[in-house]
Amino acid sequence: MLQVGLNVPQSPGGAAGGFPTAEPTEDGNTGTGQEMFGSSPVTVVITSETDTWDIDASSCLGCGQFVDWDKMPELEQEAPVPADILSRPLKELKKLAREGCWAASRSLRAQVYHQLIQQVSCRLVTPDAPVYRDVASRLFGKLSLSSHPLPDFLEACSMPTYCLNLEGVTALKKILICVGHLFPDITYSPTLPSLVALLLHYSEDEAQCFENISRLIASNAPHTSYIDQSFLAHQASSMTFGDLANKHCPAAHKLIASASENIFEVYSEWLSWLFHHLPFSYAIRVFDVYLLEGQKVLYRIALALLKQYRLSVTSSELEGTDVKADLQAFVQNIADHISVDKLLERAFGIRLFSRKEIWLLQMANRKALMERGITMVQGR
Segment Disordered: which positions (predicted)? Predict the structure, then answer.
């Protein structure tokens, strides 16, 4: 364990055109320097890249019971995998995940997911599988599932099911209801249903899936957030994506800005592109790298989608078009434009800010939203 003093530099870049921005202070910065965060020690957990994992093969028993295989685009073909693959250094694991190694074996992917999430640093008191079984038995023991409304944080949110069968859809709803009971601080989280649905594909039962999603929710790793849990956090990440799009995809950004009345409304859907509109075979590959590398890869992949969209349309084609809906349709049919391997290759070819710098940019945007009084869904 290492403690370091964190001196926060000025946030990189301004907000993209058309976005609410952090107002500069008198000395010219955006209010994201040391005056906001101070230089108090931050606990940083240093994990050696040579650390190895002991994998329990029983962790994937029963995986697939929640899947409607008739609806899956294609069955995943089991392939021989080196026995020592999960004992390799973290850097090599990242490379293997980017190349789609987990897709070669359903059981391997299930083991990797469970082991990776168990390695996530999270709050000391985080609900686990036994807690889920206890709460679920009390909530659903006598009353039917229909007697329990979904949590308020899912209001107006879609619920992709990713080829889950009826048992899987029921499990998805039960897990979300229990999350609502055990994480009352969550007020808005539109991507949570998608993440639970994806995890159910590779979980041995509801309780294991709940424990794993709970660890992602309760993550307390420095400069890392797996799941936005409030409207403020969601809007701040959308503004951050707009900043990055303006810097890394200027042509696409300019095209969308010229064709839409509210570019922020278009970019507010960026996470839904990844964990709702992408086909399952693409979304699960995104999930592979996301668990290993965190939210930064989501920005990369969404930017790669934006670049590809720019190559597929012209300004004249977008005249009078609902750009938000057109982008959603483009992502849903992404296989017609680019393979998942090529998409990830292009995503990782984008040289982004560091994770810390992106976090600082998010905090700057969060502060700007708070100053504007935007902290909850308008009109709720």
Answer: 1-38
